[in-house]
## 1
Amino acid sequence: MIGKKTWIIPDGFLQPKSLGEQISHEAVCVLNLSNENAVVKLTFYFEDQEPMDQFQAECGSNRTHHIRLDKIADLQGNLVPRGIPYAIKVDCNVPIIVQHSRLDTSQEALALFTTMGYPIEQ
Amino acid sequence: MIGKKTWIIPDGFLQPKSLGEQISHEAVCVLNLSNENAVVKLTFYFEDQEPMDQFQAECGSNRTHHIRLDKIADLQGNLVPRGIPYAIKVDCNVPIIVQHSRLDTSQEALALFTTMGYPIEQ
Amino acid sequence: MIGKKTWIIPDGFLQPKSLGEQISHEAVCVLNLSNENAVVKLTFYFEDQEPMDQFQAECGSNRTHHIRLDKIADLQGNLVPRGIPYAIKVDCNVPIIVQHSRLDTSQEALALFTTMGYPIEQ
Amino acid sequence: MIGKKTWIIPDGFLQPKSLGEQISHEAVCVLNLSNENAVVKLTFYFEDQEPMDQFQAECGSNRTHHIRLDKIADLQGNLVPRGIPYAIKVDCNVPIIVQHSRLDTSQEALALFTTMGYPIEQ
């Protein structure tokens, strides 16, 4: 089984400002090499408020899903808040591999960063 | 034996647009510290289509190869598609170390990101 | 228990120059998934002077804290020096997950980088 | 003992072009938490030529050293070549922690990337 069922990303932030053609965003990029459909649950942790834990996405077997955090909504239709720091926990029913990337277009030119998530041993 | 035979990179994307002197691209950077020639197989996974698994590159003993994903073609001559998200699995006959980097020149100035691949234990 | 109590970040630098709306800074981003309040101690190592080890921050249970290194002061009121290279050791009373990011706005447009900290096994 | 004695960085490149106030460069950032002086040996691997293995730097106990790859010279006075891809192996007499970063100022604004090195288990 390739990958882990839980991954952590401490540095999340949706830049409120965008310049140029591309919108500032983040993506949680998942690869599912198992034989089953992956149900991916995202929990967002904040500095001064309770976690939001009703976000869910899917990823088919032998498929990738670059989950856009500026687009995903939870079961009540809430979006991930822009302009405040958060951290992310990714939980899945099957082992997956998780990478997190940010695109920031707030200042004349775009900036990018990425890192593998931190895998949790079961 | 230094390195692993399988590595995963969930966040792949070839930016279609380039400005300035440098073309937007990605590279899978391999170091081969074994005594044998390395045959590197790349499989690309997508969100809505079957994987492409006929890409191959080489890397000599005590050599590096920064495999350009905007240039590599598969056995049928297909290129990696630009403008859609993908993930990458790297398989090799010998242990290697893999890092993945992106150069994006779509908006007035270049942006860079990099991460080590996620190594799979055998 | 998710995470580790000690993390290392070798590449720290507070860019002295800032252009545009955002100030150049770094953040040590912490997620605390334990049931206790986290007391986070930061030690800064330099190339030519003794370490500074009197910096402290907190992070509640099920909270994140993106600790801004341009704002934190030690017990004597000293700031992290700008314009010289440093490395960081993060120690905590409970297991946490640590990521480090830099925002540099010194040259017309912002630049970003990030990496997970290097976790120390206990 | 915190850290490892050998680290790998597959993606090295010294951008030949620089614009603005800062020169394009890379740094191998080392933290030495041992009680001894660290002697750091750097080997550079290329795509089409033999490795260069006569580069050496030092890092004191409880000190960091951000080794600038655009400045270091080997025992014969050779510099790391600009404009061609390379990979780096870092070997040390004591355990250290290694991070690698690139600053690119070739196109109107700077770009940054970073990653932890890949640690080799002994």
## 2
Amino acid sequence: MRRHKSYLLLLAIAAFSLFYFYSGKSETKPQTIYSAALLPVKPSLNYDQNSPYIFIGGVPRSGTTLMRAMLDAHPDVRCGEETRVIPRVLGLRSQWRKSEKEWNRLQQAGVTNEVINSAVSSFIMQIMVGHGEPANRLCNKDPFTMKSADYLAELFPKAKFLMMVRDGRATVNSIISRKVTITGFDLNDYRQCMQKWNTAIETMITQCDLVGSRCMKVYYEQLVLHPEAQMRRILEFLDLPFNESVLKHEELIGKDISLSKVERSSDQVVKPVNLDALTKWVGKIPEDVVKDMADIAPMLAKLGYDPNANPPNYGKPDEIVRKKTEDVHKNGETWYKKAVEVVNDPDRVDKPIGP
Amino acid sequence: MRRHKSYLLLLAIAAFSLFYFYSGKSETKPQTIYSAALLPVKPSLNYDQNSPYIFIGGVPRSGTTLMRAMLDAHPDVRCGEETRVIPRVLGLRSQWRKSEKEWNRLQQAGVTNEVINSAVSSFIMQIMVGHGEPANRLCNKDPFTMKSADYLAELFPKAKFLMMVRDGRATVNSIISRKVTITGFDLNDYRQCMQKWNTAIETMITQCDLVGSRCMKVYYEQLVLHPEAQMRRILEFLDLPFNESVLKHEELIGKDISLSKVERSSDQVVKPVNLDALTKWVGKIPEDVVKDMADIAPMLAKLGYDPNANPPNYGKPDEIVRKKTEDVHKNGETWYKKAVEVVNDPDRVDKPIGP
């Protein structure tokens, strides 16, 4: 009833005319005269709900930072650091939606689905636009937004979604060894973490599938092994022209690519795409967990990772990736120094492997 | 560094020109051409951060609904129901602000104070504008926003604040007898509730004082005893012309004043301003609590309520209020029926007192 736009517009015009009429008669003139012009919330915000945003998500430690760094290297795109606040506002709204009692209270107060959507989408847009430089295509990378992909797709009908998928054993090993605190994950318990990974990725895959053709799954291993083929596929999906710079994101760190000194991946994406992170997990997982892997994390097999191969065969890297990995090892000290420069806590940076 | 607006504008223009240049050469043309015009987030939103909003707050059960109903009766003002979501977004932001670690992470990600403010204020404006009819002066009544008055005053530099103050014994008796669930209040413990009231109102008074001349304290008892004098004072403070309709809000219920069927006060503000609620609490508070009142709730004395008088002398009502109270009693059944009509749960409605 409240939501007929043309009716609202007529009402606004009527109210405005009445206001002029009224203010002439009243005892004290109201202090402010509203402009008939439409004022944007933020004058520099020339984006709206119909802008073709890009959302990158996935379980943390699945290559989401690499993905956004490679896209940040594209002249048309800006992703930037994790905003942290976007998934929290989505979480708040999701709480309201889940409680029938609360949802009913909100409807009773005129706080309808549409009103909440306009508030939540304004919040998200202001954060996306404000926390970095302008760009033709704005992109957001907060891993857990993928849990709300279906809702985001409704808020932003032209948005596209990249869901990072990675062998859960590598993800969990990275979470545990890098001490990445994630709500619900017990960093002292490999088995529990694999279960949590399984639940999280299952939810995200469901969300991505609900979004349909606007959500693309990107396998971290394939992105690392075949960056050019994958980036061509990804850019085409995003309706962006291919650009060589996405294959050398390491040259743009600190220039077009802004990194947070406190994000756990900053010291890693400083380096070129390399093979070091693919199989680090092998030999690190307790034997009893390795033995039960197929049961603990059924999503592994569903996503095409052999739960009984340690490691599975991810494929053969492109020649350029092999060379870059060699360079990372040969010039270990140089890359180590660069990595130390971009973080607050040098103790967390991987030591050079050596040639 | 990121926040120079003129610099941003120049950049946007430059980016736009570059984009045109670039899109001519690129392999695939990007699908969307951004308009150089500034698009508002919501086309019907002709309010902005500088609009003179009105915020009504206070401890729940202190007359905030009566206050907003009387203002809603004014032809220039629309408050509407409690939105419930505005205090929650303020709470979220307050959490981030309080944690030094979190705040630092956000700064590192370009999510600066200014960016958060633009997101939070957009959210609040979309809710305020969207959940009711348009009006020259938009008003919000969510009791706990008063805890964030200083921050709201920063977000909205022309906003004004009305803080409802009421004898805490009456407030607590109303919370307990009407079973109003409020986080932290133990409805089975009068003493604990008085302590909670004391803490809550202390915080709010501090906030109101920080806001200074843009926050006015309104004593519930005085509003009920002398509605005309109080409303003249309040409307002058709000730069609004006096209008007789604010003294007969009961005539506009369901017309210009929209009530929620699930709010705890709806069945009360249906009636005209009357004296029934002033001293209902007398005789309801456990004796040991009455005895220790001055120590349990030192804010009572600070606000001018004698903690040892049961009840204190609140003053003598205007003749019109005495008459309206008489009418509410004489026509008890009629008013009871009206009250039952506006709520989902008739069991909660006060039974008629009788003449």
